[in-house]
Amino acid sequence: MTLIRQEGPINQHTYLIDAVHRGIPRGHAVYLLKSRDGGTCLIDAGTKDSAKIIYEKLITLDAWPLKRIIITHSHWDHTQGIGFLREKAAETESPLEVFASEKAGPFLADQSFNIFFSTEEGPYDNIDQVLPLRDGQSIEVGRDLTIQIIGTPGHMADHISVWDENTGNIIVGDAFGMKWGDDLIVPNPNSPFWSEKDFRRSMDLLKSLEARTICLAHFGCLSGSDAQRFPDDSLSMYERWMEILSQNSGRLEDIPFLVDLLWEKIYHHIPKEFRAQIQPGLTDAMDLAARAYAKQHP
Ligand SMILES: [Fe+2]
């Protein structure tokens, strides 16, 4: 199997936690990094609801009190769990440090831009006291685990990924798209801060790393041939979506029409029995992509 879609270990240092996105299992993954000498670092904090699930899981994984959280980018589903985890940490003697890109400060300080995602999770808590990370910076999680921060903007201006050179694992948040099944890549050019130029540059960087495993927020960890193919497959899928949007730029508000085109032109290989299951998510993804596209092509 080359796509891990279950909670569990990815390698000796990395554990996939199913943060259960809006009540849906395997909707959102966060990753726990743990060194042999007890160093811990959680990559992303989930939503307010999923933080409770993450907290319970960290206890069972003997990773609480947690030492650090790194936020991959300032979108609500990666940040809004911070408040709950900080409250829980305050009940302990152990400080919890929260890190994000040095570019994330203004977006974290004012999370109201997340209203673009049309969720019912607002109002969004602003996140303060976040320690800035530079592109290329190394962090020692423990004696046997040092990670490197890699700037991967595109999906969001402040997006970073976390690279573990020793295991060849990279945790990429939302930087390069989503994978909802073995043969189902969904791109996410879905915010007002989307930058195609930066996305392409970040994609080149990802390819150059030749990662052994690629851990996605939505959802799971790719390995083997899946990991090798993912940068090219993901870029090509993005381009196919953009082709649909550019060829139908007069109908960007007609989301059912655009989703029908996705089924007809791209996802025709998905068995009919799974389509109803995927339809709501695909509709949301297309709605966001079309609005972001319209904003950038006025
Ligand atoms: Fe995101």
Describe the structure concisely.
The protein is α+β, with helices and mostly antiparallel strands and 298 residues long. It has eight helices and 16 strands.
Question: What this model shows, in words?
Answer:
The structure is a single chain. With 298 residues, the protein is α+β, with helices and mostly antiparallel strands. The chain has a single domain (3-237), classed as Metallo-beta-lactamase, Chain A (4-Layer Sandwich). Helices cover 35% and strands 22% of the residues. The chain has a 7-stranded mixed beta sheet. A 7-stranded mixed beta sheet has the order 2-3-4-5-6-7-8, covered by helices on one side. Helix 1 (48-60) packs across helix 3, helix 5 packs antiparallel against helix 6 (224-247) and helix 7 crosses helix 8. It is globular and about 55 Å long.
Number of strands: 16
CATH superfamily: Ribonuclease Z/Hydroxyacylglutathione hydrolase-like
Average pLDDT over all residues: 95
**How can the largest sheet be summarized?**
7 strands, mixed
Strand content: 15-25%
Number of domains: 1
Instruction: Give the CA-based shape.
Output: globular
Bound molecules: fe (ii) ion
**In CATH's first tier, which class applies?**
Alpha Beta
Helix count, DSSP H or I runs of 4 or more residues? 8
Structural class of the helices, strands and pairings? alpha+beta
CATH architectural label: 4-Layer Sandwich
CATH fold type: Metallo-beta-lactamase, Chain A
Rg of Cα set: 18 Å
